[in-house]
Amino acid sequence: GGTTKSSTEGQNTAAPQSTAGQANPNAPLKEGLKIAYLPKQLNNPYTDVEVGGGKVAVDEIKGAYKLVGPNDASASSQVSYINTLIQQQQDVIAVAANDPNAVCPSLNQARKAGIKVITFDSDASKTCRDAFINQATTQGIGESLVKMASELAGGEGEIAVLSATPNATNQNSWIEVMKTELAKPANSKLKLVKIAYGNDEDQKSFTEAQGLLQSYPNLKVIVSPTTVGIAAASRYVSASSYKGKVAITGLGLPNQMRQYVKDGTVKKFALWNPADIGYLAAYAGAAMSSGQITGAQGEKFTAGKLGEYTIGADGEIVLGPPTEFTAENIDKFNF
Amino acid sequence: MTALLRIRGVSKSFGAVAAVRDVSFDLYAGEAHALVGENGAGKSTIVKMLAGVHRPDSGALELSGTPLALGGPADAKAAGIAVIYQEPTLFPDLSVAENIAMGRQPLGRFNTIDRAAMVSQAARLFTRLGVSIDPNRPARGLSIADQQLVEIAKALSADARVVVMDEPTAALTGVEVERLFAVARSLRDGGAALLFISHRFEEITALCQRVTIMRDGRHMSTDLLADTSVDEMVRRMVGRDLDALFPKQDVVPGATVLKIDGLTRDPVFHDISFEVRAGEIVALAGLVGSGRSEVVQSIFGVDPRDAGTVEVAGKSLKPGKPKHAMAAGVALVPEDRRQQGLLMELSIERNVTLPRSRSLSQLGFLTGSRERRSAQEWTERLKTKYGRLSDEVGTLSGGNQQKVVLAKWLATKPKVLIVDEPTRGIDVGTKAEVHRLMSSLAAEGVAVLMVSSELPEVLGMADRVLVMREGRLVTELSRSEATEEAVMFAATGQEATV
Amino acid sequence: MTAVELPAPKRSSLDVVLRARELGIVLALVLLVAVTTISNPRFLSGQSIRDILLNTAILAVLAVGQAVVVITRNIDLSVGSVLGLSAFTVGTLLQNYPGIPVVFALLVGAGVGAACGVLNGVLVRYGNVPALVVTLGTLYVIRGVTYFWAGGSQINADELPPSFLNFGTADIPWLVILAVVVLVVTAVVLRSYRTGRELYAMGSSPQAAQLAGIPVGRRTIGAFVVSGGLAGLAGVLFAARFGTIDAAAGTGMELNVVAAVVVGGVAVFGGSGTVWGAALGALLLTTIGSALAVLEINQFWQQAIVGGLILLAIGADRLVAVRVAAGLKKRGSHVG
Amino acid sequence: MSAEQLTETRIGRLANWNVAIIAITAVVLVIAAASVNSFGTAQNFGFLVLDLLPIALVALPMTLVIVTGEIDLSVASTLGLSSAVMGYLWNANQPIETIIPVCLLLGAVLGAINGFFVTVLGLPSLAVTIGTLALYRGLAFVVLGDGAVADFPAVYTDWVTGTIAGTPIPNVLIVLVVLAVIFGVILHATPIGRAVFAVGASEQAARFAGIRPGRLKFWLYVASGTIAGLAGVLWTLRYSSARADNGAGLELAVVAAVLLGGVSIFGGKGALPGVIAGVVLLGSLQNALRLSDVSNEALNVVTGVLLIASVLGPNLIRRRT
Ligand SMILES: Nc1ncnc2c1ncn2[C@@H]1O[C@H](COP(=O)(O)OP(=O)(O)OP(=O)(O)O)[C@@H](O)[C@H]1O
Ligand SMILES: Nc1ncnc2c1ncn2[C@@H]1O[C@H](COP(=O)(O)OP(=O)(O)OP(=O)(O)O)[C@@H](O)[C@H]1O
Ligand SMILES: [Mg+2]
Ligand SMILES: [Mg+2]
């Protein structure tokens, strides 16, 4: 007897649907909304750009912007901050979850208290948020990572992935797509030899890149779908004897990567505009808080300069396709 | 003789305790000066003021006519004052040679330490003291006696003008004391001033010219030794006439309580067998390092044993289990009270009641009041001097600390009382009390086993004397057979030369 | 009285123990390298050795400083935070004044660290607060100050002068050379100068040191200044090596450093051990990290193996010590 | 000694850091409740208790361990491994009623391993537990890898985050209070407690008083591991997420809280009420500052300064008198 996983299957999904009610697409955007951003971790350049976009949007809609967050990218610290935000009676919490489940009870408490919860960057379990701003579809990113790797490797050879933490949700789902892509006959000559984890720490990523190159002398491409990882790997390779022999690609910030693109270490990498994610999150939250949308599939709202968006299945709002950066176009971007 | 060091009206208090009050006396170049007094009289406090450890609250020191302000031990060293503290102060991880030379290491090229010179310097000092300690070995693991000898070598190496010795002989036996005295005399005759503290009057009369007596932190008198008698000194120290020092009552021994058979622990002692009967005081004599302490520690169970049995009242004790021994009624007052006897940072109360925390508890719980009452009772019985029961034991004078250890163990009402150097560092008054206590315990039927390096104590107190030499029990002497010569002969294996 | 024979000046048993300790680490190192190389010869390639040594340099500098403090029976848990502060200070400085020579940057870093060391030392000495408490406190405080100052900003490689980055990555391994210099100087001072021996004495018995007239206060502060200064220096090396500096640089490093020192045979209760051992400990830990990556050992096992090896190292060290102590017991003195 | 002196002794013993830290904590709580919006709400009280629960739990046995003069830095890793194993077994479809005792047992075993190295082999605990800190955390990753296991039964997760019916008192507070009382009584009013202090003051002298320091310490490590295992279970249920990195870095916070509570790092001195006050002080300060929008950085600085001040303050006062 006893309570086991299978005996409780399906029982836990019952989440409070506090957002019940009818959407009124014509409701005006409220002013003075208290919108709080809770990124995975403060003091991370990528995060800073994201929430920077958020601040622009909150100012546009005359809301009150707030930024809180831990220094350590852990779910438990995020929970403390969510609790604080509940006490402070925010209107919208825009959160990038460090763990899809750990933040759930708190987020649901927030929703019970009437706070709209928008996740961005890294989703929480869909039972505990109102909408998710998806930077790109998981499928789209996974495909584009494999495409770039294949181009750089010339269609065949060993590739490796340098990811963030072993349990980063977004990273893992991209890697899953990559694996499916690689299994396709078109990519049969590409071999994924290793997934290393740099924990989104610069030094660890640096050392891991080093380890990859030592272990796999025939490595052709390192794919790092994290800004910290790609920068660290590029820096290592640019100053080592591997420069020119091993290609680096992945997701990176143009400002951080400019040097390595220019010195030839990196031929191309991709990214969406992170500022737009924060920007979109603010508008989505405000629209929801104003009653324009409820998070149901098919609802539409306007997000300032980004134009109109439609809510997809499971409350997902997709930002758009990622941009590829190369030596030709990189100077047009500044973030 | 000129006054080399003048102590003028110094006082020192620790919180409410006035340890030294307005004490003045002079040390002359070329004299050995004894400082005596009861435990807690303030002798060590004077020493620490001379060493620069404590700054006098008032009063002053003068060296060769110029005022001497000591900011710390380094100043005292620089002024040519060398101190042997009551408790050895070695660096266990460093080699013996380095311990001796610390701060004065001979230097070679680029001011680096010349190790060879340092080692040979230490070796020379040991030769002068007539002992063989490997200068290269670390100080860790040296016996107390060896530690004391290293301390002495350290003081000698300083070529000091003033040498202060706070009970340097407490851990030494006759031969070593003689060696020390020979060296001390040569220092003295070389023009140094010696301040010598001891509770043993025979040593004082053998070495010193003058004696200063302290009582309760006050200066009582300073006289030529030739002008005073031991009785007179004792009277001034304690402020009254003293009872007999060795009040051993005659007791008809009862049944055998403690039976040791074939006790062995390699390589320290071998095949030790003896018995102690109820009402008996049995002394275990021998030279320092002969293994006596190890034997009693093994009996009590704090040390393991390789072979042999220990029986208390017919029941055999498990090896290595002091709790067993305690439950069977054995108590051990260990030789090193700072390391083994007391928890220096805990209160007097906790120390006195520690071995009985189980029996003092009610339903397994301790509220503190029973412990307090018991601690008060036993410290009073032993006439312990202290401020409050909650004071740290470490702040008591050496003698009072020893009383706390005794209280701690006597309170367990033992059937077998083992005492290892019970009166080491204890003044005559307290010593008599301790002896009376042992004697009356024996009269009550307690079996007492006493390890002692003090021959008068052994001869005065024991019904039987067991002598150990190099880890073996060599002789058993009855009270009538036990003479100084007989014991020394057995302990050294040769005719006594002292 | 018969003359006692002068013992022939021979290696003290103390030295033998220490030698044995360091020998053990060297053996472990050789074994590790051998096994790894057999399975992947590239492990012994020039680039690989270079990488390991460069990575070790930073940890070794920290470990040398930590050893000095641990020898005095203290501990400095703030080194990770000091490294972060120093790295960020130097990074900012170079960002604003790219023309500054590397030597000056090193001095600034060491200076920042030394200042933190003074703070630690003064609190330990004059505040009479145990070092573990003080440095656990300054671990938080210094990290907090760095975060305050840095906020979210990150200094990237492209904002640092190339001469500085070159210092970290050039063909001549400056970092390693610097670390070796630091190691040798510290080792000589500790072994052959009075000041060094006084540090051992303090760690061996604080009370005895006081009574022996050793300026305990000054030496304690001195030890913390050395540790802080070296942590500051390590911060500069860190900046040069990794090129990216944010407020989190060096977070959690303290436990690695203490582990290196402990594995290197420096007793946590002070009084014994050498900086050679500490540096070897750093080398061993770094090599383990690299070797496990090369040996294709599951990433998840790495930390567990490091933990196991630490236990193994201190356990083996203990066995040697026990054997030596048993030897000493048999050599009591006798009146000659 | 007269009755008068007796009461004086009692006052003397109480007038120490222990009382001071409790007073400071009370003052901080009052000021925070008065000046920080919504600090005093029942809901916030619940959050506060849940936030400081793991630190408070682990601090209980840690106090005893530190009083004996040792330390256990592996507690947070034990917590993590307990959490990871909980997730693993849950995924393996084991009943939670079995998993929880298994995790406690696991904690006990991990503690016993520390105890073995420290007492049987006689290795310094600082070094040993730095080793097991890495080892246990590593094993947690071996067990659970990158994964996070969620969907623990709502009955359990709700109990951990819930309150006693009809009151704002969190359920877990009962666990905490019961354990605090048990550890407090053991430390301050039993022969075991006396032995703990004795061993901390001098291991050798304690041995000469019939205490077996090794055995005592061994069991304290077992207790420490068990409680850390329990903390891992509660952590997992609270966040409904079993992960290998749960509780990473918690060890320093626990040590900080214990030291703040007036326990001497050298052993032999300390009291449990002070430690509880230390935990509450740190927790409520962080909570109040966060509510006042003071940044994380400031929390770090405050923690550090408090820690140093907690030892420095009494020292300076003592010196002046
Ligand atoms: N550091 C201290 N703090 C508080 N009290 C002290 C301190 N040192 C000594 N005392 C007290 O001062 C008094 C004198 O102590 P001192 O050690 O000088 O005695 P002593 O004459 O050397 O005794 P003994 O013969 O037992 O060694 C004692 O009452 C002792 O308790
Ligand atoms: N702590 C120690 N470490 C190493 N060896 C020791 C230690 N204590 C004593 N020994 C050695 O053990 C042997 C027996 O010493 P023990 O202390 O039992 O002698 P003892 O006759 O009681 O002398 P003492 O009067 O010094 O107590 C000697 O060889 C001594 O050098
Ligand atoms: Mg004295
Ligand atoms: Mg003895």
Automatic annotation (TrEMBL), chain B:
Tagged with keyword Cell inner membrane: no
Localization, UniProt: Cell membrane
SUPFAM superfamilies given in the database record: P-loop containing nucleoside triphosphate hydrolases
Protein name: Rhamnose transport system ATP-binding protein
Top-level taxon: Bacteria
Topology relative to the membrane: Peripheral membrane protein
Domain ABC transporter residues, every copy: 5-495
Single GO MF annotation: ATP hydrolysis activity
Keywords: ATP-binding, Cell membrane, Membrane, Nucleotide-binding, Repeat, Sugar transport, Translocase, Transport
SMART domains xrefs: AAA
Cleavable signal peptide: none
GO CC annotation terms, alphabetical: plasma membrane
CDD domains: ABC_Carb_Monos_I, ABC_Carb_Monos_II
Organism whose genome encodes this protein: Kribbella sandramycini
Pfam families: ABC_tran (PF00005)
TrEMBL record, chain C:
Pfam families assigned to the protein according to its UniProt record, in alphabetical order: BPD_transp_2
UniProt keyword annotations, A-Z: Cell inner membrane, Cell membrane, Membrane, Transmembrane, Transmembrane helix, Transport
Membrane topology of the entry: Multi-pass membrane protein
Ranges annotated as spanning the membrane: 20-40, 52-70, 100-124, 131-152, 172-190, 221-242, 248-268, 275-294, 300-321
Subcellular location: Cell membrane
Protein name: Autoinducer 2 import system permease protein LsrC
GTP-binding found in the keyword field: no
InterPro entries: ABC_transp_permease (IPR001851)
Molecular functions per Gene Ontology: transmembrane transporter activity
GO cellular component: plasma membrane
Record text on subunit structure and interactions: The complex is composed of two ATP-binding proteins (LsrA), two transmembrane proteins (LsrC and LsrD) and a solute-binding protein (LsrB).
Its biological purpose: Part of the ABC transporter complex LsrABCD involved in autoinducer 2 (AI-2) import. Probably responsible for the translocation of the substrate across the membrane.
From TrEMBL, chain D:
Pfam families in the record: BPD_transp_2
Bilayer topology term: Multi-pass membrane protein
Subcellular location(s) per record: Cell membrane
Keyword Ion transport: no
Superkingdom: Bacteria
Stretches assigned to coiled coil: none
A molecular function (GO) term: transmembrane transporter activity
InterPro entries assigned: ABC_transp_permease
Main location: membrane
Transmembrane regions: 20-39, 45-66, 98-122, 134-152, 172-197, 218-237, 249-267, 298-317
UniProt key word Metal-binding: no
Keywords: Cell inner membrane, Cell membrane, Membrane, Transmembrane, Transmembrane helix, Transport
A GO CC term attached to the entry: plasma membrane
Protein name in UniProt: Autoinducer 2 import system permease protein LsrD
Lineage of producing organism: Bacteria, Bacillati, Actinomycetota, Actinomycetes, Propionibacteriales
